[in-house]
Specification:
The chain is mostly helical. The chain is about 40% helix and about 5% strand. The longest helix has 15 residues, at about 35-50. The relative contact order is 0.16.
């Protein structure tokens, strides 16, 4: 005898997000008077302002920066999609500060390098590990929440939704192929969810007497 089994539905986990105020405190944490702090500050801006993935940040090359046109052109490692983003003054200044005053004077196509010799491309856990270590200094409780660079990506999308930005625009910023990938952030945008709520109709108390 065969038994009909119901397919188990696995719901996606709700992303960890941080408020705009918390994100600003994280950005302010790196010590920008130190070469490594200049590097980390520039990287965290790329994560928080553009929502770039760790792989795209550590893989950033000088050829990805169009200084004349103020553009950042990133070939996403995960999707192979090229994303062109306006190079904001804040981000551009941080990059210049690191390149001129913090980056080791060695030949390498990569913008970001290790802080100590032998100087080479960064590993993927550097940025996320640093963000996690900054949380206590920023006065942020990350208990039961992820605190890496991807959480900054989630936070950007959610905070943009909270500012009434449209899904197509957010999808373009994050480099998503469709808005379906971006819609996961609706689950943590409570303001957007409230807009979907329906009014509860008034029901006379005698209604329940008729069905008991």
């Amino acid at each position: 005898m065969s038994v009909l089994k119901l397919k188990k539905i696995h719901s996606k986990k709700i992303p960890s997000v941080y408020t705009p105020e918390e994100v600003e405190r994280i950005i302010a944490t790196p010590d920008r008077s130190h070469p490594q702090g200049k590097r980390d500050y520039a990287m965290i801006l790329l994560a928080t302002r553009y929502g770039l993935r760790v792989s795209d940040i550590i893989g950033l090359r000088f050829t990805n920066i169009d200084w004349e046109r103020n553009l950042l052109k990133v070939n996403q490692v995960k999707t192979s999609k090229q994303v062109s983003l306006p190079l904001a003054e804040e981000v551009g200044s941080a990059l210049i500060d690191y390149i001129k005053h913090g980056r080791p004077d060695v030949e390498s196509p990569f913008v970001f390098l290790t802080a100590h010799a032998p100087y080479k491309e960064l590993s993927s856990n550097i940025l996320s590990g640093n963000i996690m270590s900054w949380m206590p200094y920023a006065g942020i409780d990350s208990t039961n929440k992820k605190a890496g660079a991807h959480a900054m990506r989630h936070s950007l999308a959610t905070n943009l939704l909270g500012a009434n930005e449209t899904l197509p625009v957010i999808s373009e910023i994050l480099g998503h192929s469709t808005t379906e990938s971006t819609s996961v952030y609706l689950r943590v945008s409570y303001d957007q969810l409230r807009m979907c709520a329906l009014d509860v109709p008034f029901v006379l108390s005698t209604f329940y007497d008729n069905i008991l």
